Amino acid sequence: MATERTLAQDTGARAETAARAFLEAQGLHFVAANAASRPGELDLVMRDGEVLVFVEVRYRASDRYGGALASVDRAKQRRLVRAAEAFLARHRAFHALRCRFDVVAAQGNPDAPRMHWVRDAFRADDDARGW
């Protein structure tokens, strides 16, 4: 049975597309989107020179209730780190690259949102990979 996409999923996908275009305009190069694994999903994987960037895209229509950045809490960060480890386990060609976790907070019109890009938004725990 096919499932219908929810309005929230559709809006999120449109915001991720806009975030990808924004990051590419900033000089990053696309590697993957919606890279799913058991620990979770990586919205975007990009390259910034010799750095592999795992990007979490968070969309909010407004900044009420803390906004998009506030939604990337410690538990979400741990899931992203585990998803990045799974991605690296499947894509060994990227092992030599340094890694970084960025967050793009998108707000407003999901087709042309205002972007707030936080580079190196958080770090993996030293015991996770030592990035």
CATH class: Alpha Beta
How many whole angstroms does the radius of gyration measure?
A: 15 Å
Q: What's the tally of helices?
A: 3
Helix content: 25-40%
Distance between the termini: 42 Å
Shape: globular
Arithmetic mean pLDDT: 86
Q: Segments where pLDDT lies below 50 for 5+ residues?
A: 126-131
Counting helices, strands and paired strands, the structural category is: alpha+beta
Task: Fill in the CATH topology.
Answer: Trna Endonuclease, Chain: A, domain 1
The tally of strands reads 5
- Can you name the CATH architecture? 3-Layer(aba) Sandwich
State which percent range the strand residues make up: 35-45%
Keywords:
single chain; 131 residues; alpha+beta; Trna Endonuclease, Chain: A, domain 1; five-stranded mixed beta sheet; 3 helices; 5 strands; 31% helix; disordered C terminus
Layout of SSEs?
Layout: H1 7-25, E1 29-37, E2 40-48, E3 51-60, H2 67-70, H3 74-90, E4 98-107, E5 114-122
Parallel strand pairs: 3-4
Antiparallel strand pairs: 1-2, 2-3, 4-5
What does this structure look like?
There is one protein chain. By secondary structure, the protein is of the alpha+beta class. It has one domain: 3-Layer(aba) Sandwich (Trna Endonuclease, Chain: A, domain 1). Helices cover 31% and strands 36% of the residues. The chain is built from three helices and five strands. A five-stranded mixed sheet has the order 1-2-3-4-5. A hairpin with a 6-residue loop joins strand 4 (98-107) and strand 5. It is globular, with a radius of gyration of 15 Å. The model is unreliable at 126-131 (pLDDT under 50).
